[in-house]
Structures are given as structure tokens and as C-alpha cells.
Amino acid sequence: YPDLEENDEDEHVEVQVHEMVPSFLTGEKIPTKAIALERVPEGEMAKAAAQAGKMAKERQENRPKEQSEWRKVLNRPLGKIDKSPMAQQRRRLPVYHQREALVEAIKNNPVVVIVGETGSGKTTQITQYLYEEGFAETGMIGCTQPRRVAAKSIAQRVADEVGTELGKLVGYSIRFENITSPDTKIKYMTDGMLQHEALADQNISAYSVLMLDEAHERTLSTDVLLPLVKAASKRRPDLRVIVTSATLDAAKFSEYFGNAPVLEIPGRTFPVEIVWPSKLESDYLAASLMQIMQIHMSEDEGDILVFLTGQEEIETACERLYERVKALGPAMAHTLEIMPVYSALPSEMQSRIFEVLPAGVRKCILATNIAETSLTIDGIRYVVDPGFVKLSVWDPQLGMNSLKIVPISRAQANQRAGRAGRTAPGKCYRLYTEQIFENEMSSSTVPEIQRQNLAHAALMLKAMGITDLLSFDFLDPPSRPALLGALVELYQLGAIDSEGLLTRVGRKMADFPMDPAMAKVLIRSADAGCAQEMLTIIAVLSMPSLFYRPSDSKQRDAADRARRRLSDGTGDHMTLLNIYNTWAKSGYSKQWCADNFIHERTLRRAKDVRHQLAGILQRYQHRLDACGGDAQLILQVLASGYFRNAAKISGTVYHTLIDNTEVAIHPASALFGKRTEYVLYHTLVFTSREYMHNVSAIQPSWLLNAAPAFFEKMDTNTKRRRTETIKPLFNRYSEHDDDWRISAQKKYVKYE
Ligand code: CDP
Ligand code: MG
User: In this protein, which residues make up the domain named Helicase C-terminal (predicted)?
Assistant: First the structure.
């Protein structure tokens, strides 16, 4: 970075936005405003979802530290899992009767779409049939799963069926866990892992068969894999591709793969009676528990499956349910076995759902949507469906994808109900009304690619060598404006060049599971030697406010004084760093926080996030140096990612550079009341007026350096006018091509 302090012209530089469109997008209509990615459904269910999110947060914060009694019970040794009649069981699966037809179709067609009820044996059997038929002689039989847990547990099951140890003939590969060997012929993996393999080898040549399982789940990775596999299949006539999907989407997949044949495995299902309530309960967790108790007390034998949204919620529900059953008295206390299932649950615990229980004991499984299709549990006759799921959606404030509770789709609701009719007629208790089902739920889930941040997705595809995203063969293309916006953003961030090709820093940014702007700031900070500081600043920025202001006026004055003491002259970014560091020096003291009117819990959470971010940087061999709190350097690095958030003073107010909106520095800012020509803010929040939160003073020339494709210098007849009035910056950008983008060797990049 040029040392701008020593550049005497600086105070006279004026910049303005001159948004440049990369040449590969010439002629395109680029959207000017950010695209709203999240489609917020409206209605009662949406309100209940928001409420549930709030309650979950509260519970999380007030969780008792000691182990609950239910936990201790859960930790008892695992009972018997029925493995003996496995061969028989395999022959009873619906897929068994289709074996020959399946093998024949796969032999004769490069791509086959297979549909069948959950539990019919697609995932566990087809791979084995193909292995037995010799398909693994020229390569592995690979099978992708949207979820880590499913990949692991299915691999275990198949290894058991084959009668080998896991990791030999049958293996699995999920992030940070590769249980395979040179002998592995049947390999289960997450779709993300195969995507990673495709990054290195576009022909995916290690495999003779690829089964894209649960393709209807439409994870971002699956949506990215579909075109890659399609292309590989065209190049490799020997490759066999199998796509399994729910009935609803089969035709679509078939058409996508050039009218590939669709094979249906006739199911063996029993009728499921749907039970509707008269109204939506505001607290679905409480309503679920009541429903479970009612089933347990009054219905015939048969296990219960309840769909909740996540680990914390499931654990809370298990604990409460355990207490209620216990309260029924000694005779009843052991009649209900409560079992949680969620992806972070250790696999031994997960095996409990397959445990064989003594007669007269009913299983009650509380699961996330993992039990919708990925895991098959026999013996379920009662399903309780509150109608919610936790989904990853783009959070513009965090600049990251975050998990949010939202209503499920009708397709999901029906899939859930179906779980009750696998072995006998069943009942599904929905906790929402039929009206809500018809009017508020969407017919099917929006694919991830249409609801997540596309800048990141686009960057991943670029990193895979896909240069032309606009005509990329997506199954459901994201909207064109959303994609264009993402590409321009990547260009301005320097992740792709004017021809749309990935740059070196872009390649690095692709490794980070977050907003590219944030990824860039972190990478830059590592190169510039201020990663330690930046990690702290980014972590604290992603939290709600650290400060509290008591209502008592005397106390409030004390709080304001404390805040001023901790303030840094350059603004809020360095102030936040200062606060964190002082807290760290106090030994992460609770008392220090109390004395300074700082939320201790928020700081502790920031510490956690910081740790995670540091882990990512280290994983990709970035150095974690500290620069000793050099504000100039740190703020320049921040500008390299957040240059869009700049504002310039005019009179007593500021105007954003990007769209000239009138904004003001929030009174809580360290810069409040100071007059600084140019500032960088982290967020805009509209209350009584548009306020900038977390604001720091910057030099306009930093913006020029940070984003030459976004800013240009204004011609301002200054005293010592320079010859280099900036002409189309675009040219300069390409002349210096690799120069201004970072590299590990060059910290300082010259412009002249
Ligand atoms: O893929 P699909 O849903 O068609 O079925 P699957 O996952 O292959 O499961 C077939 C059968 O294997 C299930 O009905 C279960 O009885 C059994 N299974 C099991 O007992 N334990 C597992 N971990 C997986 C499957
Ligand atoms: Mg399956």
C-alpha cells in the first residue's frame, strides 16, 4: 500500500464514483441497487418463525451449565442394533425387485433418473448392485449426499451390509474426514466434496459411476455439480450418471439431461391420516410436546417422529419431554425413549435411532429435516410436524449466510407426512391449519442458488474454471440482474478481471465461506501484516452493539465517559479493536466489562467468531501477524473490501459516494461531532434519519487504490496540479494488470 501519509497532495484529492463495467459485460444492463435475495413469506407462519428465532436466542443465552438428567439417561450404553437378518432385510426392500431393470437401464444410458419412496433402498442398494455387476472395475462408484451425517451413516450401513470395515471397500469423504483407502470402490460423500474434487479434475475421472443422490434438495453444491457432471458425461461416454430425486422434480431432471429415462421404484406405503389443528399455536415447541404426550397416552403402539429446527431446540424439547414423562410416575416413566437427531450429534448417538427397544417402549425421535429424506427410520407411525425448518439465507448486515427459521414448503410437508406410513398406516399431526398450508406455504423450497449471496457462488464457479456464468447451464438459473450484480461486485473487488477471469486474490477469496468483501479484507490483512487486528475488528463488527447506556442519568454519564476513554481518534473501527484488546489484557474480565458498560456476552461471542475466522485463515496458509495497531494500515485494508461504504462531508451532513444519499454519523460513534472529510462506515441504519454506524476517517486516495474500477479522481484545480489527471481508470487498471491485486510478496503497490 502506498504510504499516503507522506503524499503531500493527499488533502487535495477528491474522488467520485465512476462505476466501471468490466469489458466482458459491455452492453449489459447492470442493476444499480442491491438485489433482495431473501423472499420473505408473509402471514401467521412467518411471524411464528420470527418469534421462534427470538425464543431460541433467549434460551441459548440462559442455558444452565450443569448436565440435565435427560442427558445422563441419553449417555447410557448403546443397546442392540439388529444386524443379523441383514441379507433378508435387503431382499425385502422395494428396490430389490427392480434390480435387473435398474442395472440394465444404467448400462444402456449415460444418465438415468430414479425416483422412489424414501426407504425403498436407493442409496444403500444401488451402489452395491453396481459393484456386484462389475461397474467398479474401471473406477469408483461415487454417491453424493447433501448432508455430512447422511454420507457417514449410510457408508457405515453399507459397510455393515457388505460385511467389511468402513474405509476399505466402502468409504466416505466429508469435510475434514476422509475415510477411504486405495481399496475403496463404493464411496459416499457430500456434494460439496465432489465439487471440490471437480475443481481439480473436471472429468471426475476417478469415478465410473456417479450417483447424485437427493438431487431434489437443490443445495448450492448440487446445483453447481449438475452442469459439471453433465459436461463430464458428454466428454466421457463411459461415465454412468444416476440422479435420484423426489417424484415431483423427476421430469425436470430428465429434461435437463437430454430426456434421460426415469425409473420409478414402486413404493410400498400405507395411508397416512392428516390431522389439522383448529388454529396455529404461537409456541410450536410447547405445542409439539403436548402433541407427543397426547399420542403417547392415547394412541396404539408405533414410534413418533417430530420435526424441529435445530440442535438447541431439539435438546430443550428432549429435556422438557423427559421431565413430563417422568412426572407420569414410575410405571410410565420408562415407556418413552427420547432420541435426538441433528447433524452435529456424534454418530454413536445417532445410531440410537436404529436401536432395538424392549416391547412396550415407544421411540420418540426429535429430528431436524435430516429425517425428511436422508435418513430412514423404520417403525414410525406418528409424525408431528410444526412446519418449520432452519435455512441458510443471506444476511446483508452480517455479510454472511446465516441460519434462519422459516416455514417449510408444501412439498416438504407432504414428505414429512409420508414418514408415518412406511411400515403400517400412520397419522401426521400438523401444527398449522389447512388454510396456512394452502395459502402461506410455497409449493416447493426455493433452491439455495436463488436465495443465497451470489457473489460468493459466482466466485466459486469462477474458481472452478467456469468463465461464462451468464450462459452457464444451470438447472434453474439465478435471476440475470442478481448474477450481473454479483459479477460486477467481484470485478470491483478485484476477484475477476475485465475479461471476467479469476485473479490470484479471487482464487484465494473463493476458499472463504463468507461475503467476498469480508474475505478480501481478511486476505489483504494477512498480506499486509495486520491479520490479528483485522480478525478482531471483523469479529466485533459482526456483533450487535457492545455498549449499553443505563437509563439512570448519572450512570449514563459514567457510561459515556467510559466510552470516551476507550475511543480512538480515527473512529469506531480502532475503538472496537481497542476495547477488545483492553478486555483481553484484563484477562477477559467480567468486572472490566461491567466497569466500562460493555456487554460481556457480546464480547465473548466475538471472541468465538474471531477464533473461527482465524482458523479459516490458517487453514489456507495465511500468516497471522500483528502490525501493532497501525490505524492507517488497518483502515486502508478495510477500504479494500468496504470501499462501497464511503461518504463525503458537505456542510453539516454527509453524502454517500455510491448514490448520494444524505447520511449522518450516529451519535454513539467515536467520530460524532468531529468534522472529517471522508469516512468509511460499516452499516447504514435508518431510524429517525439515515445513520452511519461504525464510522472511521479515511483518506480519499485510499479509495482510489482500493477500487480503481469504482472510483476516479475528480479534476479539482489544486495548487499543485498534477499531470496525471485520471482518464478512464479502466485502462490503468488493465495496464497494471496483476499489479494492484495483492500478492504475498508485495505489500506496497505503486501506482505511478
Ligand atoms: O435411499 P432410500 O431412501 O431409498 O433408502 P435407503 O437409505 O437405501 O434405506 C433402505 C433401508 O435400509 C431402510 O429402509 C432401512 O431399513 C435401512 N437402513 C438402516 O437400517 N440403517 C441405515 N443407516 C440406513 C438404511
Ligand atoms: Mg436415500
Answer: 291-465
State the distance from the centre of ligand 1 to the C-alpha of 125, rounded, in angstroms: 9
Q: pTM of the predicted model, to two decimals? A: 0.69
Residue of 460, 486, 504, 500 whose CA lies nearest to 741? 504
Mutate to test the pocket of ligand 1, among 97, 157, 303, 370 (most ligand atoms within 8 A of CB): 157
Question: Tens digit of pLDDT for each residue in 467-487?
Answer: 788 888 999 988 787 788 889
Q: Return d(Cα 193, Cα 144) in angstroms, integer.
A: 8
Whether residue 257 has its Cβ less than 6 Å from ligand 1: no
CB-ligand 1 contact for 121 (6 Å cutoff): yes
Contact 647, 681 (CB under 8 A): yes
Instruction: Using the atom order of ligand 1, give the atom closest to the CA of residue 120.
Output: 4
Indicate the residue type of 245: S
Evaluate whether ipTM surpasses 0.90: yes
- The answer for residues whose C-beta is within 8 angstroms of residue 300's C-beta and 6 or more apart is 381
- Mean pLDDT score of the chain: 85
Locate all alpha helices (DSSP H) within 338-433, ordered by sequence.
347-350, 370-373, 410-418
pLDDT at 732 over 50: no
d(C-alpha 304, C-alpha 362), whole Å: 8
CB 513, CB 477: distance < 8 Å: no
Q: Provide CB contacts within 8 A for 242, sequence distance 6+.
A: 106, 111, 112, 113, 114, 126, 209, 210, 211, 212
Note the ligand closest to the C-alpha atom of 159.
1
Is 663:690 a contact under the CB 8 Å cutoff? yes
Would you say the CB of residue 447 lies under 6 angstroms from ligand 1?
no
Cβ–ligand 1 distance for 143 under 6 Å, the answer no
Evaluate if residue 393 carries a pLDDT over 50: yes
**Cβ(88)–Cβ(64) below 8 Å:** no
